[in-house]
Amino acid sequence: MLQETVERVSGGEFQPPIIVCNEAHRFVVGEQLQKIDQMPQAILLEPEGRNTAPAVAAAAAWLESTTPDSVLLVMASDHIIKRQKKFLDAIASGGEAAAKGHLVAIGITAATPEIAYGYIKSGEEVESISNCLRIDKFVEKPDLETAKAFVESGDYLWNASLFMFGAADYMAELGRLAPEIAQNCHESVEKSTADLDFIRLAPEPFCACPSISIDYAIMEKTDKAVVVPADLGWNDVGAWDALWEISEKDENGNAVIGDAVIHDVSNSYIRAGERLVAAVGIHDSIIVSTDDAVLVADRSKAQEVKSLVEQMQTAGRLEQESHTKVYRPWGWYQSLEVGPNFQVKLIQLSPGAKISLQRHQKRAEHWVVVAGAATVTKGEDVFDLQVNESTFIPVGEKHRLENRQADPLQIIEVQTGDYLGEDDIERFDDHYGRD
Fold first, then answer.
1. Could you report the per-residue pLDDT of 415-434, keeping only the tens digit for each?
2. Which of 54, 204, 245, 269 is the most exposed, fewest CB within 10 Å of its CB?
3. Which residues contact 127 (CB under 8 A, 6 or more apart)?
């Protein structure tokens, strides 16, 4: 979905994108952009999430320092837009309004009474700008009866959190309505540091920003807000039931992805990961199986998955923090098995990549090459390993793994020791500038 979002605005009059993401997501974002041959202007790393107003302010402040007359199009990376031509038409109208100093929301034609979305009540037309209306008010997510009344009136649009405004105009209005955010984000950008292909926002000023959305901080308060109505075939895929709605379905209304066997199942979303999912006699349900967890839910309760995440956070579980596959600048690793005093990982190094020269004080490692060819540094020795060859790295031994070939390198790593945390790494040299 990130790839689709970037490709939606590639070419034409669009400049390369500015991506704002959490530090923990930087390598997966970089890899996804590389896969579609897209080079962003910048990838700004948030030290922590502070909602959309500070995130967009960081991008606007960064752009304001170079091209303050630029118009920003703000898009989340988890939206579906099926009608590209209508999307571009809406952007053209929005761009015209933004160039005249307006803060623009792209409002989605409300086809059905949805309670998962906020709404925008549109007002009178804006003179001399086609398909552009004043905003009377923003409305929070309504109950079902209120949503039905909104749709029947024809005056309300879904708030898709798609925005357009001049970078300098946004920062000026932010300075007037939320000066703490504007000041801190300017400072965070000014004190930012480069890290490989990323820009690390200075943490202290950025984290001092209040956590608040663009809607609350700016759009609901400004007198410059306008809306461009559009019927984009839009969907905010914020829950599993939304994914079911946009997926291809069989004659019984089932969206089935992966290896699944079903009987007497209807109107359900079933996603199988690396193992078979078998289901009998279920209806209007969601089943999602990954390599570390299985979710089973009533489709009407899909929004309540967040309560499960809150329970896992309280319990200190790790499943809600990251996937078993973790991306690094040199490639990725995936945890295959964890037990008392051991862990098994599959590690892949991209062509030309190498891990840092490092050592561990609490664990030993055994490497077995399963694809490609490895160059290994072990103490003072440097040697190559082919498929089915292995080496043992004792506790406290300096070591490095390198891929000097044109194809990816994969190894199985077996770690043993009484502590296997990722913070047991002492780096002596790193190709990617990490401490």
1. 999 999 888 999 999 887 77
2. 204
3. none
Question: Which stretches within 127-285 are classed as H helix?
Answer: 144-153, 167-177, 179-190, 203-207, 214, 240-246
Confidence (pLDDT) at 417: 95
Token reading at 296: 């089973």
Q: Tens of pLDDT along 244-255?
A: 988 999 999 999
Q: Are 336 and 346 in contact (CB under 8 A)?
A: yes
Token duo for residue 427:
């780096």
In whole angstroms, give the CA distance from residue 367 to residue 376: 10
**Alpha carbons 234 and 207: distance in angstroms, whole number:** 32
Look at residue 167 and give its three-state secondary structure.
helix
Collect all residues with Cβ–Cβ distance below 8 Å to 297 and sequence separation of at least 6.
Answer: 240, 285, 286, 304, 305
CB contact at 8 A, 161 and 120 = no
Q: Which range has the worst mean pLDDT, 230-244, 279-293, 400-414?
A: 230-244
